[in-house]
Design goal:
The chain is about 15% helix and about 35% strand. By secondary structure, it is an alpha/beta fold. The protein has two domains: about 60 residues, Signal recognition particle alu RNA binding heterodimer, srp9/1, CATH 3.30.720; about 55 residues, Signal recognition particle alu RNA binding heterodimer, srp9/1 (2-Layer Sandwich). The strands form two sheets. It has a four-stranded mixed beta sheet with strand order 1-4-3-2, with helices on one face. It has a four-stranded mixed beta sheet with strand order 5-8-7-6, covered by helices on one side. The longest helix has 12 residues. It is elongated, with a radius of gyration of 16 Å. The model has no long low-confidence stretch (mean pLDDT about 95). This is VOC family protein. It comes from Dyella telluris. Pfam families: 3-dmu-9_3-mt.
Length: about 130
Amino acid sequence: MPHATPFLMFQGGNAQAALDLYFATFPDSGLLSVDRYGKGELGTEGSIKTARFTVCGSEFMCSDSPIEHAFSFTPSSSIFVEFEAADALDSTFGVLSKGGEVLMPLDDYGFSRRFGWLTDRFGVSWQLSLPLAR
């Protein structure tokens, strides 16, 4: 049975710094496995060849691309995180938006009690939401 896993490709050796930020920011997040480039391999020695990790219990993969590309992340593909408390959402929004770009500031947009959309300093797009009462 096929299994789909979101994959984030970082440039400039930023994968480890991004993972450190995500693990420090989100609960139930951490490294599952990592394979690093060795001496003489295509990528920078010690950078991430592939890593499996969780953010809020969901599994992802990432790598440091050893090849320069004319593209990076786009906000049209984002990680959507639902929160149970506004203070946790606000705190996370503040951490992730530092050095990044706010696409939609925190507000009540009608589809969520509190919602914000941002791109973090690594270019990864996040939608943070406090759902309407269920």
